[in-house]
Design brief:
The structure is a homodimer of 557-residue chains. By secondary structure, chain A is of the alpha+beta class. Chain A has 19 helices and 12 strands. Among the domains of chain A are: 3-134, Butyryl-CoA Dehydrogenase, subunit A, domain 3 (Up-down Bundle), CATH 1.20.140; 279-408, Butyryl-CoA Dehydrogenase, subunit A, domain 2. In chain A, a hairpin with a 2-residue loop joins strand 1 and strand 2 (35-36). Chains A and B meet through helix 3, helix 4, helix 5, helix 7 and helix 8 of A and helix 3, helix 4, helix 5, helix 7 and helix 8 of B.
C-alpha cells in the first residue's frame, strides 16, 4: 500500500469516527424512553440530512481506496501514482473538506467543540492533506492526464464475461440508441422497436431473473453486477429511451422472488425475461411521493378476486406495460398503515402513445394519461385510474399469505430500484463527460482550445473523479447485494451518484458555452434527464432522512 | 446600528482585507516587467475564479448590511431583528463560511499560512459568528417567519413612482404573461401580441431612452433602477416571453448614446422607444462566445456604404427585429484585434417564426435560422447569415468617427446587459420562490405539510436570503450606474445572481417532488430557464476570469 493511500485511509477512518460520534450525539438527543423518537429526530432534520451525505461520501471514499489498492495489486504499474490512486486521494481530500466544513459550520448540532475538531478533523494533518490533494497543481495535472488519455478514468475491474457484456451494450448504445435519442426527446416519442427488440434478444430483461425461471442469471446467486453494467451502458445512450428499461422488470422480479408463490414465479418470471409483456410499477400516489404507508388505492374483495378503485401516479411505462405491479389497500382502516397494503399483479392490454383506456367485461375500467415532463422521455410516466377494475385471486402477490405484506414486497423491489438509479446516473455522467472532453478539445476561445485552460482542466479532474467514484461505488454495492447485503449502501450510492450527476452535467453544459443550451447538443438533454434522478426512486430528502439517517442513528452507539 | 450588524460589518471588512491580500499575492506572482501578464494569470485561473465569486459575495454582503440599516432607519420596527437584518446576518455568515473554506482549501494559491488564517478568517470570533447565524435554529426560525408572512423577504425600498411601476408590471406579469407562459414554452411559439402590444403602451421599451429622444427617462439622469424593476417583474412572468424584451433595446440605446451621431440618436432612439422596429444584437460568432476581439464577420467598403459577409450566432429575436446592432470587422487584418471592429445598424424586414430570408435589390441577402433551445423560449435565438448584405454609410454607428470603435460601443452596451440579466435572475427566482412556498403549504407527506418540516424551512430561509440579496444588490448597482459608476459591480451582481437563481430553482423543484418535473408545474420551466443565465451575457467563466479577476488584480496593491 502506498504511503499516500495509507494516510488517506487513516484520515477517512478519522472522518468515520467523527461521523459516528455525531450520530451518537443525535441519538442521545432523540431518545424517548430508550427508543429513537421520530418526532424528536425531525427537530434535527438538517443535521440528519447532512450526516446522510457525509456517510455516503465516507463510504464512497473507502470504496475508492479499496478499489485503487486492488487495481495496483492486479495491474501493477510504474512507481508513479496510477490514475485510480490519484482520484481516490482527490476524493478522500474532498470528503474530508466537506465533512470538516459541515461540522465547522454547525458544531452544536453534532456535539463538537472547536477544540475537539482542532484535534481531529480540523487538525494540521487533515488540513495539509486537503491542501495537497485539492491543490490547483494536482487538479490541473489530473485533468491533463484524463484529457490526454481520452477520458480514461481507471480500470473497470470487471471479469471477462462482464467486460464483454459491457462492450456489446456500449456498442448498442453508441450505434443504435444515441442516433435516435434526440428525436425521441424532442418529439416525446415512444421508445421505438429498433431499440426495444434487440434488447430483448440480447437478454436484457432476463438479467435479474434466475435461469430456472427463464432468465439468464445463474440459479445459485444473484447477478446484480451484470444488471448494473448493462443499465449504465444503456443510460449512456439515453436515460429515458434505453437506460431505464431494466428498472421495472428488476423491481417486479425482486418482488416476485421475495413474495410470489411458486406458481406465480413460474408463470411471470419467464414472461418478464422475454418482455412479453413489459411491466410497470404502480406504487406512488398523488401527494404521497415516497410515503408508501399512506397509500390509499382501494382493493375490495369480491367473488374470485378483488376490485381496485383509485389513482396511481408517476407510473412509468404504464401504456406499453401488460402488467402493473400495483400496491393497494386491502385493509380500509388507514390506521393499519403499511400493514393494510397488498401487492397485485394487474394485467391490462398494451397501448402505445400518451393515453390509454380499457374496459373489462364486468364493466371495470383502467385508464391512463401520460404526464408531460421536461425530460426522461421515451417511456412516459402515467397517471393511472382504476374504476372497479377486477383482479383475480391468483394475481395477489403471494396468494392468501401475501395479503397485508405488500409493503415488504415493495421494499424488496426498491433496493433494486436504487442501485439501478445509481447506475443510470453513472451512464448519464459518462455520456456528458465524453461530450465535455471532446468539446473542450474542439472549442477555441481567446486563441486556445478551452481544454488547455486551467479552469477547464480542474473541472475535468472533478468530473473524472465523480464519474469513477459513482461507477466503482455502484459496482461495490452490486457485489454486496449479490451476497444478500448492501441495503443501506444501495441508498447511499443512489444519494451520492444522483447529486454528482447533476453537477457533472451542469458543468459539461457550461463547457459547451451557448451551444450547451441548444437541443442539438446532447449535453442539454443530459442536464435535463439528470435532474429527475434525485427526485424518483426515493427523493433525496426522503432517502437521506427517512431511510439513511434514521437507520444510522438507530444503530449508532 | 445594532451590535450584531456592527459585528457583521467588521467581520466582512476582515474578509475584504483577506481577499485584498490574496489579490495582491496573485498580482505579485503574475507581474512581468511591472505589468500583470495575462498568460501568468492563466496559470492561476482556479484562484482567480474563486476570488471573483468571493468579491461578489463580500460586495453583496456589504450591500445587504447597508440596506438593512437603511430599512431600520426608515421603517423602524420593534427591538426584535427585522427580517432584512436577519437575512443580512445570515448572508454575512454564509459569505464568511464560503471565504474561509476557499482559503482553507488552497492556502498556497492565496499566500496564506494556517497561522495567518487562524488569526483572521479562521479565528474563534469568525467561527462563532458563522455557527450562530447559520445555526439550524436561526435558519428554521427565518424559514418560519418567511412562510408565515407569505414570502415577505423585506422592504423593496423603492420610491412611490418605482413602486407604482413595480405594481403595474407585476400585475401584468401575473394576469397576462403567466397564463400564456407554459403554452409558449412547450410549443416554442413567438411572443404573442397580447404580451408585446401592452408593453409598448406601458412605455417599457422607452425606459432607458431619454425623454428628448422620445423615451420616458428624465433627460438629466439615467434611470437604471426603473428599467431593472420592470425587467425583474416581467421575468417573474416569464424569462423568454417577457422578461428579456427590454435587454436588447437597452443594449442598443446604450451603444447609441455612447457612440451614435446626433442624427442617429434622433432617428433611432424614438423608434426603439416605440418598438418600431424591435431590435436585436448581433455580436457573438460561432466558436467565439465572449471573445469579442476575435470576431470575424467581414465588412467591405463599397460605394455609399459597406457589405457584410459572414455569420453571427445566438442573435436573440433576430426574426422579429427590424434592426440588428451588428459588430463587424472593418479592418481585415486579424492582428488589429478589437481595434478593427465597427458597429453597424443593420436594417432588415421583420419576420415571425423560426426562420427568415431576405434579398436586397443589389442581390445581397440576410437569412436566419432559429437554434432550438431547451428553454428561454419566445424570442428564439438565431444564427444569422450575411451574404454581400449592403449597409449604407449612414448606418455605421458613430459615422466615420465610429470606424474601429465597435468594441467600445459593445462594451458600453454589455454593462447594461449584465445588470439586466441580474434583474432577470431575480425575477425568475421570485417566481420559483412563490411556487415553492405555496406548494410547501399544500403538499402533505408523512402526515404533515412539507412546509412544516425543518429541512423545508431551512431551504426556504436560504431561498429568501438569496432572493433578497439578488434584488437589493441589483438595485444598488442600478443606482451606481445612474451615477455613471458600477461597471465592476454590474459584473459582480450578474455572476452572483445567476448562480443563486440556479440553486433556488433547483430547490423549488425539489420541494415539488415528482410534480416539479412535470411541464405543467411552472417550476420545471423556471429551472430550465434559469440555466441559461450563467451562459449568456458573459459566460460565468469569462466574466469571473477576464472581466472581474483581471480588473481586481490589476488594481490590487
Amino acid at each position: 500500500m502506498s504511503s499516500a493511500i495509507e494516510q488517506a485511509r487513516s484520515l477517512i477512518d478519522l472522518a468515520q469516527t467523527s461521523l459516528n460520534s455525531a450520530l451518537s450525539h443525535l441519538k442521545a438527543g432523540a431518545l424517548d424512553n430508550g427508543r429513537v423518537s421520530g418526532s424528536k429526530l425531525d427537530e434535527k432534520q438538517l443535521a440528519c440530512y447532512e450526516l446522510a451525505y457525509c456517510e455516503a461520501e465516507v463510504t464512497a471514499a473507502n470504496v475508492m481506496l479499496d478499489y485503487s489498492q486492488k487495481v495496483r495489486a492486479d495491474k501493477g504499474g510504474s512507481d508513479e501514482l496510477r490514475i485510480e490512486e490519484a482520484l481516490a486521494l482527490q476524493y478522500s481530500a474532498e470528503t474530508l473538506q466537506n465533512t470538516r466544513a459541515r461540522f465547522n459550520t454547525r458544531r452544536g448540532d453534532y456535539g463538537f467543540s472547536r477544540e475537539q475538531l482542532a484535534k481531529t478533523l480540523d487538525s494540521d494533518t487533515v488540513d495539509d492533506f486537503i491542501n495537497l490533494y485539492l491543490s490547483t497543481e494536482k487538479l490541473e495535472a489530473v485533468g491533463k492526464t484524463i484529457l490526454n488519455n481520452e477520458g480514461y478514468v481507471g480500470e473497470y475491474m470487471l471479469d471477462d464475461e462482464k467486460a464483454m457484456m459491457r462492450d456489446s451494450f456500449r456498442a448498442f448504445a453508441s450505434d443504435v440508441v444515441m442516433p435516435l435519442a434526440e428525436h425521441i426527446h424532442t418529439k416525446d416519442l415512444d421508445i421505438p422497436d429498433e431499440i426495444l427488440k434487440p434488447l430483448v434478444e440480447l437478454g436484457c430483461f432476463g438479467l435479474s431473473i434466475p435461469m430456472q425461471y427463464g432468465g439468464i442469471q445463474p440459479d445459485d446467486s444473484e447477478d446484480n453486477l451484470g444488471m448494473i453494467v448493462v443499465t449504465e451502458e444503456l443510460s449512456r445512450g439515453s436515460l429515458g429511451a434505453a437506460g431505464s428499461l431494466i428498472t421495472r422488470p428488476e423491481i417486479m422480479a425482486r418482488a416476485l422472488l421475495k413474495g410470489g408463490t411458486e406458481d406465480q414465479k413460474q408463470y411471470w418470471l419467464p414472461k418478464l425475461a422475454q418482455a412479453e409483456p413489459l411491466n410497470a410499477v404502480a406504487v406512488t400516489e398523488p401527494n404521497f411521493g415516497s410515503d408508501v404507508a399512506s397509500m390509499k388505492l382501494k382493493a375490495t374483495q369480491v367473488a374470485g378476486g378483488w376490485v381496485l378503485d383509485g389513482e396511481k401516479t408517476w407510473c412509468t411505462f404504464a401504456g406499453k406495460a401488460g402488467v402493473l405491479l400495483t400496491l393497494a389497500r386491502t385493509n380500509p382502516d388507514m390506521k393499519s398503515g403499511h400493514k393494510g397494503l397488498t401487492m397485485f399483479l394487474v394485467e391490462k392490454p398494451t397501448f402505445p402513445g400518451h393515453a390509454f383506456a380499457h374496459e373489462q367485461e364486468n364493466g371495470g375500467t383502467i385508464t391512463g394519461k401520460a404526464i408531460p415532463t421536461m425530460g426522461y422521455r421515451g417511456m412516459h410516466s402515467f397517471t393511472v385510474f382504476f374504476d372497479n377494475y377486477f383482479v383475480p385471486d391468483s394475481h395477489v402477490l403471494g396468494g392468501n399469505e401475501g395479503i397485508g405484506k405488500g409493503f415488504y414486497f415493495t421494499m424488496a423491489g426498491f433496493a433494486g430500484g436504487r442501485i439501478q438509479t445509481a447506475a443510470r446516473a453513472t451512464g448519464v455522467m459518462q455520456a456528458a463527460f465524453e461530450r465535455a472532453l471532446s468539446y473542450s478539445k474542439e472549442r477555441v476561445v481567446f486563441g486556445k482550445a478551452i481544454g488547455e485552460y486551467q479552469l477547464t482542466l480542474v473541472k475535468i479532474a472533478r468530473m473524472a473523479m465523480l464519474l469513477a467514484v459513482s461507477r466503482q461505488f455502484t459496482y461495490h454495492v452490486a457485489r454486496l447485494m449479490d451476497e444478500g447485503q448492501g441495503q443501506m449502501e444501495a441508498s447511499l450510492v443512489k444519494l451520492a451518484s444522483c447529486k454528482s450527476s447533476e453537477w457533472l452535467c451542469r458543468e459539461a453544459m457550461q463547457i459547451h458555452g451557448g451551444m450547451g443550451y441548444a437541443e442539438e447538443s446532447p449535453v442539454s438533454r443530459y442536464f435535463i434527464d439528470s435532474r429527475v434522478l434525485s427526485i424518483f426512486e426515493g427523493a433525496e430528502e426522503t432517502l437521506a432522512l427517512k431511510v439513511i439517517a434514521k437507520a444510522l442513528i438507530e444503530r449508532a452507539a
